[in-house]
Fold these 2 entries.
Entry 1:
Amino acid sequence: LQVESQFPKIVSRSRARGLGLRCAAMGIDLSEFETRIHVRQLRYEDYEEWRDLLTRCFPTLKPWLPAQMKSMIDQFPEGQVCIEVDGVMVASSSALVVQYDDYTDWHDYLEISGNGYLENHDPEGDTLYGIEMMVHPDYRGQKLARRLYEERKRIAREFNCARMIIGGRIPGYADHKDEMTAHEYVERVITKQLYDPVLTTQLSNGFQLRQLIEDYLPNDEDSAGWATCLEWPNLDYVPKSRQPNFG
């Protein structure tokens, strides 16, 4: 979900061609579009624009309150980022750091997000947990989500987190929930028999499915309340026991 200014060094010709065709269909010059993208941390004054983006991306869900956004930034400013195109916010991502062992019984969305305030953020934790990612509908199909995932991976490495965990929505399940279980749906997405706009992207970004979580976000009607628990291992992680002690 992003046209990124830093392409992977190895990109298949078909993938690159498909990206170019999508941009051409939107009247966008790919090389020019790359220069119009800016990734930065969220700021307090972004709230109105950020709320509008939330409402556009998740029309059935209640947007964060101003106090929640302020607390997110206060608790972990590095984990709250957005993407602008021509100065307009079109995508964003929110995350916090937790101690993995505290959340091995996979909870629910309100618990892991500290009711949206991230007051459970633990600077000494070992896991980056992504709680929100969104891309404006008009900018989907341009790999903006990939840019956000790459930013999260950078943050995980910077803070020496052993892993990144996400509780992912499966919005494509809405069209299939009357004919199959959530487990069957996810299995078909993994085997590429079905496409899910969220899970398919996550799998392509190196995430591994750990389990499914029931009633993770009950008011997420598209996912029927289900979420995937996915993990990206940070291969650059250095356990504290192996870190040099200069004291």
Entry 2:
Amino acid sequence: MPNKDISKVYLADIRKLAFFQEQATPSYWDEHWQIDDLGNYIRKVRSDGTFIPLVKKYLPLGSTILEGGCGRGQLVHALQYQGYKAIGIDSALKTVNEVKRIAPNLDIRYGDVRSLDIESNSLNGYISVGVIEHFWEGYHGVLSEMYRTLKLGGFLFVSFPSLSPLRKLKINLHLFPFSTSALAGQKADFFYQYALDFKTVSKEISNLGFKLLEIKHSNGIKGFKDEVIFFRHYLQRVYDGKEYKQLRPWLERALRSFAYHSTLLVMKKNG
């Protein structure tokens, strides 16, 4: 997420940190995802350091996996390259059409993650990378579709920005403005995303009929630089990979437990 023109407000009634910048509409994502040589960008992604290893850990080759909110489709390509039947769905129509034109071998579809044109109990896996936090009204509609489309015994891999100990400390010290969802709703047209309490998200997914298997926190450098202004200029260069590359792994390990930006949950549909 860009650092410019962001305001953050803690909504005490729903215990979420709201980011206001530019509304995360499909047209926003169409513009945000525009890059030169999209085809090469997609084709060169054959794995990643997070989701592919987890998919391999829990699902056999040939499994059907949906990425809800697939963006440019690079993870769909990586899943297919690794031997899975991958489907990608996104609501950014221009991006979907461009990916389909450039990579017609990928199963990329236009759709809404809150109302999927996917048969019930048909998926072995569902991947959600930074999607559920972008809905002002909440993520329950997205979770319901995850549950509906996954088979019994299917696996959910869902990541989102979360309330790290650093962010919770800032909340306790009232370093963010406080408000309520009703008052903040007056500027919902500028809402970008929430930072969520991972324990709350995990509990609500579990209540649908999932079992929690793993919790992984990540992006400690980003979480720290975004919340501690004094270090932002220096850490941005490390985060971008332009300088001090040898320092980045050490800094990430040092900052992750306290300042992680995002959390990944691995969950299994039990019934």
